[in-house]
């Protein structure tokens, strides 16, 4: 029984790790994306002009500034150009900060035909997360605010056929799946052996518990394989 428990715990650890690796990217894309906030009577929102946001591709950061509806959170209300704030090109600066070394650049705010909407052209040569610092004034309101735009992706997201590194990663992942399938076969063999032993002697609580554990392991394995298949289709 000790062997079965040890095997089951190792199987559960491997399954949990694979599930975590599969599910984490589904949630992480928006975790750090803090794209709107309020300062006094005003609402500030940022976005990228072109999506997906890819390193090395020409793009622009879009800035929306408007009067805020104080009855709602900034994230719960859309930009309203009728309440847009104009004339901020000289009074409000935006600073883009990237990397562990906090490289930064001051980007100019260019006006557009839409009141309260500004545009700052940039070609990101980095990938990953960044930060936008707003410094200056909106009319008489002092502004010192940090927002986090959506993540800049590597060029591989637009490349076809996939680059070699992606193929290698896929191969490694397939090997993990094959290992998991091998564990499933071992679990099935354990269940079959337990059933055989049950026929040869009276069933006791311990034997029943171990069969339940093994069956649970097969169920979890099925879920893992299902998640893997769904993820690959995505």
Strand content: 15-25%
Determine the CATH topology of the largest domain.
Answer: Immunoglobulin-like
Total strand segments: 9
Ranges where pLDDT stays below 50 over 5 or more residues in a row are 21-31
CATH class of the largest domain: Mainly Beta
Q: How would a textbook summarize the main sheet?
A: 5 strands, antiparallel
Name the overall outline.
Answer: elongated
Number of helices: 3
Task: Describe the overall structure.
- The chain has two domains: 2-26 and 159-233, Up-down Bundle (Methane Monooxygenase Hydroxylase, Chain G, domain 1), CATH 1.20.58; 33-150, Immunoglobulin-like.
- The chain starts with a helix and ends with a helix.
- Mean pLDDT is 77; it is low at 21-31.
- It contains three helices and nine strands.
- The chain has helices at 2-31, 164-200, 205-233, and strands at 36-39, 42-48, 59-67, 92-98, 103-107, 110-111, 117-122, 130-138, 141-147.
- The protein is an alpha+beta fold and 234 residues long.
- Strands 1-2-3-7-6 form a five-stranded antiparallel sheet, with no helix packed on it. It has a four-stranded antiparallel sheet with strand order 5-4-8-9, with no helix packed on it.
- A hairpin with a 4-residue loop joins strand 4 and strand 5 (103-107).
